[in-house]
Structure formats: C-alpha cells, structure tokens
Amino acid sequence: MERTSYRFRTNENADSLKYKLSKTNIQTSNSTDERIALGEVSTNISRNVNTGIGKPAQRIQVFVEQDENKPPEDNVNPENTDKLLETKIPSSVQSLENGTEKTRRGSSERKPLAEIKQNNIQFEDYREGELAVDADLTENPGNDTGFEEEDEDEDDEDAMPDPMMPIINSDISRELATVNKMFYSEQLDEQDEDTYDISMVADYSPEIFNYLHSLEMRMRPNPNYMKSQSDLKWNMRGILVDWLVQVHSRFNLLPETLFLTINYIDRFLSKRKVSLSRFQLVGAVALFIAAKVEEINCPSVQEIAYMVDHAYTIEDILRAERFMIDVLEFEMGWPGPMSFLRRTSKADDYDFETRTLAKYFLELTIMDYRFIGSPPSWLAAGAHFLSRIVLGRGNWSSRHAYYSGYTTEQLKPLAYAIVEACRNPEEHHKSIFEKYQERRFRRSSSYVQEWLHSNEQ
Prior knowledge:
Elements: H1 14-22, E1 25-29, E2 40-42, E3 59-63, E4 147-149, H2 170-183, H3 205-218, H4 234-250, H5 255-271, E5 272-274, H6 279-294, H7 301-307, H8 314-327, H9 337-345, H10 352-365, H11 376-391, H12 398-404, H13 408-421, H14 425-428, H15 430-435, H16 444-456
Antiparallel strand pairs: 1-3, 2-3, 4-5
C-alpha cells in the first residue's frame, strides 16, 4: 500500500476536510516528536473550536491506494496602488462610538487558524516569466541557508525616496528644551498614580526612554533594501505583511509581537538577499522569534509549520531561526512603538479611545514602505497626534511634547502621510481594516472612513 501526503489548505472548512478523510484509512498518534514524517499532516479537525489552536492537534497519517488528490492552486489577484489622496484635517469632530469590550493582554485563548483565507502564499504567481523557481535549502550547495549577502553595487530600479524622518532645527530644539524644564523633576510627584506603581518604574523612566531612543536608531533597517533584492518587490512585502496580520490576530498575540516581527523581517532583508520561494519562511520565522521574545504563551514550531501549510519542514524552520538570529547579531530587543505610545498616553491620562485609534494608525504604517526607516517613537507620537485630531481632543500641548519628545511642527507631515495611508483600505490594508472593525477596537477603522468622507464633502 502506497503512502502519500495530503496538504490541507487552512481556508477549507472542517466538513470539507472530513469528507476527504472519510475515503482514507486513518491512523492517529499523539507523538510529540519534533520531526514530521512524510505523509503526516497537522489539521485542526480534532481540535475543539472553543479551545482554539492552543490545544495540540493530533498527527494524522494517511494511507491510500493511489494519489488521486492534488492540492488546489491559489487564485490570487494582487493589486498595488500608489494613488494616495490628501485631506484637510479639522480641529475637531464628534467622539468615537462607545464600546464595552477591551483587549486582553496575554490571553492564552487562540482562534483556529482555519479561518485564515490565505495560508500558504503562492508568491510564484507574482513572478516574472524569466525568474526560475529557487531550489530548496537542502538543494543549494553554494549557500547552505538559501540566503545571500546583499551586494552594495546594485541598480536603482526599486529605489525609493528617503524615508520619512522628523525635522529638527534650532527652534524645535529650543521648544523641546523649554518643555523639558517645565515638566522634568528629580522629585517624584506624589499626586501621580504612576509614582506608586512599581511596574511604571517612575524613578528611572526618563533614563529608560533616553536609552530606547538611542536603540531605535541603532536597530533601524535600511529603508532602501529592496533595490538589492533580485526576486522581491515592494508589493510582495505588502502581501506578506497582510498575511502576517491575519496569523497574528488568529494566534491572539500582543501588538508588540506584530511590530517586532516586521522589524526582524526588514532588518534581515537589509542584510541578506532572499529568494522568492523562501520569502514566506522569513515572515513565519520572524513571527516565531518575536513571539518568543514578547509572549507568555507562544506558538510551537509545529503550529508554525501548520501555519504555512507545511510548505517548509520543521527542520527548515529551526535552521532558518538560527540563521536569522545570527544575521541580526542576537539584537532582538528592538524598542517598538507601543512603549512610546504608552509613554505619550500619559499626557492624556491614558485615554482608551485615543490610544485605540492610535494603534490602528500605527498598524497602517507597517504596510507602507515609506515608514520602514522612521523612528518608532516618532510614529507613535504621530499616531497619537492624529487620534486627538480625529476625536476632537484639542491641540498638542506642552505636556504631550514632553512625554512624546516631538512638537506639532514635527508631527504634522507625519499626520498627513498617515491620513493618505487610510485611503483605499481594501487595497492598502484590508486585514488591518477588518481587524479594527471589531467592537473590541471600537470599530476604529470604520470610524476613520466616516471621518474622511465627512471632511470631503
């Protein structure tokens, strides 16, 4: 009896998978061996939907007389839009729709990955006809990892403008120095609740954030790395990030994990050329590492393999993980924008609506290559700045400038760029838009679209 392998697409429902399995002789095993033998697959049929993906799936070995089934091909129709419009930002609008459900941090409950519409992304559909399919890692004798070091002398076909950066001049420096004198004190404020919260480390917070500001520049990716990539284009990065947003949401991971994942990807691509056949592996491994850094309950390597529809073996994933950590020189503690956003939110007494809307604006920036080289502290301040405008919370005060480190003059250009990124959500950031339509995020994405339409009339 011949042993064959089934590759199940995660966008198939349970009934469809059960029908496939009903024609076969199934043997199950609860082995936790890290290696998956040929013909073994991981499926969520045996999982309780209520418990989510946190419960390990059974290993299913399938034996059939002959191979009668082929994995379906993905039909994807990519569209990449560069048309961004401008809008006038008013000083105030009506407040955001009220909601009752808040995001829970560190939750171990995970939704099943079967809800993901795009699983094993077939980037080959986007390749030019002259590009050959790259060999697997084990079939690449010239480079044991499948990745190559970037050459500095490349053409500028995919070059992009300089990344968006905050402006700095003598007037801005004087303004920041003035607000620093106004609010900085070596004596802790007894009226401030954070003084008595040991998790806020109020004694050392100024020094901590000064250090984070230095780290964000040192661990900044090269914003022009795509011109050194022979197989990849900017729209392919957008497809990968969109897929990672879906996976991140289904695993119910923290926002910090998503931003850290994107930073790992961009920094890795800044140092190594990646073939198209290994591009999704880079994204999956980056998420795997970032979850280990940020999460209490992180996905297992078996779940990562399942997430990519077993397009890569467990050994591929573990080897790529070691290689990525080595390329990044074990510098995994990039200070993401969420830490700076919480710091800035202190000026608003941690207003939940403002911070929730700012999170939506922040996630938009990971889809846009213009923000790859931008400091996360500036992005966080700009997202908070725009949230206050949309919600009509008033002007950017000296208190906001102190806690964020940026003035109104520095944040206005960024706010306009984020507004442009909000256009055409179905094409620019579909998964993020759908995510923030949920009640727990106060339906922020829908509210922003209503705000844009009201200001166009």
